[in-house]
Response regulator transcription factor
Amino acid sequence: MTTVLIVDDQALQRLGFSMLLEQHPDLTLIGEATHGAEAVRKAAELKPDVVLMDVRMPGMDGIEATRRIVESGGRSRILVLTTFDLDEYAYDALRAGASGFLLKDAMPDELVAGIRAVAAGDAVISPGLTRKLIDAFGSRLPGHTPEQQRQLARLTNREREVLTAVATGWSNTEIAEQLSLAESTVKSHVSSILTKIGVRDRVQAVIFAYDTGLVRPA
């Protein structure tokens, strides 16, 4: 059973999402919030598996709410809804720690699949699209922190190669072919990389690779 918190300032939008969730017995709506501050409070109280987060809301927006929920160290994962795929809000949400985003006009099946994927620990956005976002808004990259540099130093040479390939947008299959590895070995490397650099998913790994200068915006 996957529990979901819906965050949107529009009542009709929240109603539509709740009706969609009711159609799937493995998804349970445990709360709603109308703005970012309420989302942060309810995420702490209810501990949902997934927070379905609108980014453009009055008061505290979804980006700041995402940042605070992620920094709290809870288990909730954030799936952001935005208007455009190459959207500054989407970029900022990913940097804040969201596990992915979907467009607001996504089909119902896409939204349900996205919630399930995020709950399972996957990222709901391709590394390739993440790279396009960083290329578009990469002039705002803050640079690496001392802790990120220490995390990067923990990686083996092979793990750095794999991380660079992930940040380039390659799939596990493509990485296996390019580096002459078994795909299962690539998966093991990716899992080890995520643990060593302290991120939740491949999207955050891509951002880490750019922050540390391992790869650079086009």
